């Protein structure tokens, strides 16, 4: 166990939208972001690939079997039918997506999402999931099969339903959501950071530039509305905030990439 405090900061949803891609690129090159996850089925995946290559952003597979928006959408890379809507788009609810999903189609889609990243010559640092797992562990089981096959760690969180063959050994994992202003979010972040103990911690962020096009992802009454623009713009502000960077230094918190974080196995 490390006697120092380490913090990995990952930016989710790379490839989802131009504003997200720009936000992640800016947070990595000018801020404190250390890693990212990319979503192969999303409309701007290839743009994320180019930014990854240009900037050297460490990326993992953000396995994508859902789409939270009711206007903006995407479908699977394969011809899978068991976890999509009748019109071929991915469902907006994790439990609905996995209620009828078959293992054969799930594994085929997982492998294809992995393959298209690998085909671009990009090293894949880890695997993780978009919008969480189903309570029945169907998706977790499939992900664990990919973890074993590719010998890559699951990004994960301490509350996973199953023990993954390889996973990061986090002392804590957190996300900043709820505050509707940058100052309120910064206060919550500082409170969390000040409580960190020696070990390795994961801060999951969703940065995007504050652009009007993000309002067009969904209707105003969509359950994910705050995630379309507000929370993402706040996350980017935090990642670029010099006061946040100074606080990390003052509290001796070391920024650490996923590739330098400890991994545990299911046999440990």
Summed up:
The chain has 268 residues and is α/β, with parallel strands linked by helices. The chain has nine helices and nine strands. The strands form two sheets. Strands 1, 2, 3, 4, 6, 7 and 8 form a seven-stranded parallel beta sheet that branches. Strands 5-9 form a two-stranded antiparallel ribbon.
Write up this protein.
The protein is of the alpha/beta class and 268 residues long. It has one domain (5-265): TIM Barrel (Alpha-Beta Barrel). It has helices at 18-30, 45-55, 94-99, 103-118, 138-150, 182-194, 225-228, 230-240, 242-250; strands at residues 5-14, 35-38, 59-63, 124-129, 166-168, 172-174, 199-205, 253-255, 263-265. Strands 1, 2, 3, 4, 6, 7 and 8 form a seven-stranded parallel β-sheet that branches. It has a two-stranded antiparallel sheet with strand order 5-9.
Which descriptors would you attach to this protein?
alpha/beta; globular; TIM Barrel; 9 strands; 268 residues; 9 helices; seven-stranded parallel sheet; two-stranded antiparallel sheet
């Amino acid at each position: 166990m490390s006697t120092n405090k380490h913090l990995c900061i990952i930016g989710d949803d790379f490839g989802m939208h131009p504003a997200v891609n720009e936000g992640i690129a800016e947070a990595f090159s000018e801020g404190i972001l250390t890693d990212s996850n990319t979503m192969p089925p999303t409309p701007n995946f290839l743009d994320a690939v180019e930014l990854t290559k240009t900037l050297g952003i460490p990326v993992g597979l953000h396995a994508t079997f859902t789409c939270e928006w009711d206007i903006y959408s995407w479908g699977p890379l394969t011809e899978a039918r068991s976890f999509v809507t009748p019109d071929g788009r991915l469902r907006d609810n994790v439990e609905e997506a996995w209620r009828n999903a078959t293992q054969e189609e799930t594994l085929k889609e997982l492998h294809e999402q992995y393959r298209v990243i690998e085909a671009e010559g990009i090293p894949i640092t880890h695997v993780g999931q978009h919008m969480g797992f189903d309570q029945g562990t169907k998706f977790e089981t499939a992900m664990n099969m990919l973890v074993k096959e590719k010998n890559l760690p699951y990004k994960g969180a301490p509350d996973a339903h199953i023990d993954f063959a390889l996973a990061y050994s986090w002392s804590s994992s957190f996300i900043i959501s709820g505050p509707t202003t940058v100052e309120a979010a910064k206060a919550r972040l500082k409170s969390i950071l000040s409580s960190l103990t020696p070990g390795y911690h994961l801060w999951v962020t969703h940065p995007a530039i504050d652009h009007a096009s993000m309002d067009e992802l969904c209707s105003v009454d969509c359950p994910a509305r705050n995630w379309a623009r507000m929370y993402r713009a706040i996350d980017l502000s935090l990642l670029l905030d010099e006061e946040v960077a100074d606080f990390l230094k003052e509290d001796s918190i070391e920024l650490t990439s996923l590739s330098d974080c400890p991994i545990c196995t299911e046999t440990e």
